[in-house]
Amino acid sequence: MEKNVYGVFDSNPELLAAISNLKAKGVSGTQMTVAADIKNYVQLGNEHTDILIIANQDKEDTLFFKIFHYFTDEGSGDLRSFFTKYGYSFAETKAMLEEVKAKKFILLLDEEVSIEELKAGKARLKK
Prior knowledge:
The protein is an alpha+beta fold. The chain has five helices and four strands, in the order βαββαααβα.
């Protein structure tokens, strides 16, 4: 199953607003995935526990590990593997990793959800 990018959000409140809007249109939490650099930065609250969160790490690295990850281009293994698994190109994956490193959140939807119809205001899901 593919995961399609619905949007990139600068803050947790923007992400929560988008999730609430999608749920109001009939998209379930199990059809959503949030990609973030650090899992602890994603604060969805108790009402969105069914949403999958994929992150590079659970918490902030120490200074040593930040330097290590910078020079080895590691530290994005979880997200890099996730995006590769779902068929994103190297360039697309690199661009998304840069977004999450900038402390942004990427909201992805399962392929059966029609992003075009949702953005056009229709609440219909692909079958």
